[in-house]
């Protein structure tokens, strides 16, 4: 297992060495409080319809956003939200797709609640010094398009649908395995299940580390969390279908119900 997903204790020991990014809405960041020194980059600010694929914001927009938040390409980043990490994971995946070294990208396990239970928070304003952030869409990265998904189906790769059961039953890509992203999370701790439980669940569903794993949902938000967890567990061959079911249906892809 790697340290892609890190604990509140891990972050507390390294606060001066990392850039902490809070992706909640501004009113939560200011009104509820945040990790001291964190900068606020709300989820809606790095989602768009004019980027290179799916809901990516575009390289220039993302560079301006993170640079304005004081984040540079060489920073080690820890992101968090208060929704089990799904929105924060989307920031990390977006950064990776625009060329940020994935070894420098971390998700706070247990989200803001985990930090708040153990460590002090602040409502003080954060005014980071602007930084230079260079973003370029990585065409050799984990993002794949619809043709690669069709090839994955034909080649026997493991296709994973990370949506809820009712969504899967209404229609999914042929051959897809259902794994609701929330099944990887412990509702009580708000963090990931213990590693042994995660591996048992994945093995039970037929999602193995030696497989090529292609992930999708509806708009590539939920797969961001599953992708991050599988990276944390050391799965080496992961593909991220950014267009997800939205594009698949628009392009006339077959769906299986039930």
TrEMBL record:
Keywords: Repeat, Transferase. GO terms for molecular function: transferase activity. Its EC number is 2.8.1.-. It holds the Pfam family Rhodanese. It is an enzyme of class 2 (transferase). It comes from the Archaea. Residues 14-124, 153-257 form the Rhodanese domain. This is Sulfurtransferase.
């Amino acid at each position: 297992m790697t340290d892609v997903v890190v604990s509140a204790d891990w972050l507390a020991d390294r606060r001066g060495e990392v850039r902490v990014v809070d992706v909640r809405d501004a009113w939560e960041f200011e009104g509820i409080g945040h990790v001291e020194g964190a900068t606020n980059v709300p989820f809606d600010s790095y989602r768009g319809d004019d980027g290179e694929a799916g809901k990516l914001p575009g390289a220039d927009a993302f560079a301006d956003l993170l640079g304005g938040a004081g984040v540079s390409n060489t920073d080690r980043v820890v992101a968090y939200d208060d929704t089990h990490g799904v929105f924060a994971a989307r920031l990390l995946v977006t950064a990776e797709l625009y060329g940020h070294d994935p070894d420098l990208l971390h998700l706070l396990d247990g989200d803001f609640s985990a930090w708040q239970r153990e460590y002090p928070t602040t409502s003080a304003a954060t005014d980071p010094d602007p930084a230079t952030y260079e973003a370029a869409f990585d065409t050799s990265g984990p993002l794949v398009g619809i043709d690669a998904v069709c090839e994955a189906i034909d080649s026997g790769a493991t296709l994973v649908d990370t949506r809820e059961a009712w969504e899967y039953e209404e229609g999914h890509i042929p051959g897809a395995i259902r794994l609701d992203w929330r099944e990887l999370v412990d509702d009580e701790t708000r963090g990931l299940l213990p590693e042994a439980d995660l591996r048992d669940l994945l093995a039970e569903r037929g999602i193995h580390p030696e497989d090529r794993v292609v992930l999708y949902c509806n708009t590539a938000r939920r797969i961001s969390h599953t992708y991050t967890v599988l990276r944390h567990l050391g799965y080496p061959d992961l593909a991220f279908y950014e267009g997800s079911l939205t594009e698949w249906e628009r392009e006339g892809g077959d769906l299986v119900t039930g």
